[in-house]
Amino acid sequence: MQNTRKQGIMPMKVIICGAGQVGWQIARHLSGEKNDVTVVDSNPDLVRRATDTLDVQGIAGFASYPDVLQRAGARDADMIIAATHSDEVNMVTCQVAHSVFSIPRKIARLRSQSYLTAIYSDLYRRDHMPIDVVISPEREVAEAALSRLYAPAAFDTETFLGGRAKIMGISIGDDCPVVNTPLRQLTDLFSTLKVIVVGIRRQGRLFAPEAGDQIFPGDDCYLCVATEDTARTLEVFGKTTEKQERVVIVGGGNVGLAVARALEEHEERIRAKVIEKSRTIAERAADALERTIVLNGDGLDAAILAEASIDRADAVLCVTDDDKTNLLAAVRAKSEGCPMAIALINDPTLVPLMGPMGIDAYINPRATTVSSILRHIRHGRVRGVYSIGDAEAEIIEAEVLSTSPITGQAIRDIDFPEGVLIGAVLKDGKVVKPTGGLRVDEGDVIVIFSMAKDVSQVERLLQVSIDFF
Q1: d(CA 205, CA 290)
Q2: Does residue 237 contact residue 174 with C-beta atoms inside 8 Å?
Q3: Is residue 366 within 8 Å of 347, Cβ to Cβ?
Q4: Which of 104, 209, 222, 238 could form a disulfide with 213 if both were Cys (CB 3.0 to 4.6 A apart)?
Q5: 360 to each of 55, 327, 343, 366, 410, how far by Cα in Å?
Q6: How far apart are CA 102 and CA 80, in angstroms?
Q7: Per-residue burial over 354-385, b = 16 or more CB atoms within 10 Å of its CB, e = otherwise
Q8: Are 208 and 418 in contact (CB under 8 A)?
């Protein structure tokens, strides 16, 4: 803590309401950055899990009760993040935080679409229901689903540097032209391509590769690539970029509906069909959609899949609220002839089953929500953070400060831990490939891949213990 103050960066006092997966992950990030974090949850077991595994304080109680917030230290808190399972509790918590304790920054996770409708956005003004940032998991997940559909060759994708660069996770097949080639040679062979292999998962283990490492069939590779080089990069790695014109969505709830709506609005005509088991939800989806066919039935039923023409679809997107249904529906759709299956998976322990089951890509709603909340918290030098796998590694986008020890150094001379690689550099508004001789200057924005254990060291090198405001 002393070291943080010496650098002139004050830790923040943050209250996190809700100690489920999302609350726990945010607490892990913020406490790891030496902030003063208190976790509040009505479930004492979840509070205990947080205090046992993280450097945080815990309070068992209802987050919206003023006396509970008082015990959590609301009088001098800088920020409150309301991420309980109830929209109403999250909203009231922010109101109490504002009216009683004058907490300056309030973030709430809201699920219900009615609360999110743009025409009611006045609701969140300071003189009404004072929430500074509203996070919608369904919208975040719908966006993640769309980015998977538009990058069908990748099982994971996220944009950085204002859309100028992206991280893509791709599975390496036997037909990949660059297998058994040292990465150093790849750089020479494709010198004009702005792409770096920043992470490799081999036999379940994720690591940051060195220049002499090779890629083998069965590897999952994470690439950091300039957006304009995406198509060419996918070709180099043996992937085709076919257009998705027909999509079947299994699950017509909030996520399925948000994806179907976005597909209807997309400039390239993508035809979608929705399968929904509940008649009430199916009718609601049919009323809300204009061009999309909604079928009432079970996504695991071969007859319903045949009615949705699954054998002629380019992709199936399984987004019900049940992980196992999503996995099985994806497998069934593939067995009926659909070439690409994407499944929504909340439980990270199910992700290793994807490969053996032949599922092409997944969306983790908790990871997308956590990334989104962190992005809104980090208004300063750290522009974005994206979690890889089960929080095994992070992609960090950060601006280089004049005070940082890496400023003015060539990349090869920077003393990064071995689990850390620079994937891209934004210099004077242009994406530059990070070669050993490239100098990192004040004002550059860099994209860094870091194994979770090395994140604190990266922050020391960037000299940001997160400049929040």
Answers
A1: 45
A2: no
A3: no
A4: 209
A5: 37, 11, 8, 19, 39
A6: 11
A7: beeeebbbbbbbbbbbbbbbbbebbeebbbbb
A8: yes
Gap between the Cα atoms of 194 and 187, Å rounded? 9
405-422: pLDDT as tens digits: 888 889 888 888 888 999
Task: Take residue 392 and report the two structure tokens written for it.
Answer: 């095994």
65 pLDDT higher than 90: yes
DSSP string, 162-200: GGTEEEEEEEPPTT-TTTT-BHHHHHHHTTT--EEEEEE
The residue type found at 427 is K
pTM: 0.68
What is the percent of the chain where pLDDT is above 70?
Answer: 90
Among candidate residues 393, 392, 396, 345, the one with its CA nearest the CA of residue 375: 396
The region, left, alpha or beta by phi > 0 then psi within -120 to 50, assigned to residue 222 is beta
What is the chain's alpha carbon radius of gyration, rounded to the nearest angstrom? 23
Beta strands at 105-109 and 79-82: parallel, antiparallel or unpaired: parallel
Residue with the bigger pLDDT between 143 and 334: it is 334
Q: Report the mean per-residue pLDDT for the chain.
A: 84
pLDDT the model gives residue 127: 60
Mean of the pLDDT values across residues 50-68?
A: 92
Average pLDDT over residues 273-279: 93
Cβ contact 79:107 at 8 Å: yes
**Rounded to an integer, what distance in angstroms lies between the CA atom of residue 288 and that of residue 253?**
11
The rounded distance, in Å, linking the Cα atoms of 429 and 438 is: 16
Strands 205-207 and 271-276 come out as unpaired
Between helix 44-53 and helix 21-32 the angle, nearest 10°, is 30
In 3D space, the residue among 376, 381, 373, 411 whose CA is nearest the CA of residue 7 turns out to be 381
d(CA 373, CA 25): 11
Left, alpha or beta for 422 (phi > 0: left; psi -120 to 50: alpha)? beta
Domains (range + CATH), the chain: 2-135 (3.40.50.720), 246-367 (3.40.50.720), 368-462 (3.30.70.1450)
Cβ proximity of 465 and 4 under 8 Å: yes
* Angle, vertex CA 428, rays to CA 4 and CA 157, nearest 5: 75
CB–CB of 164/426 below 8 Å? yes
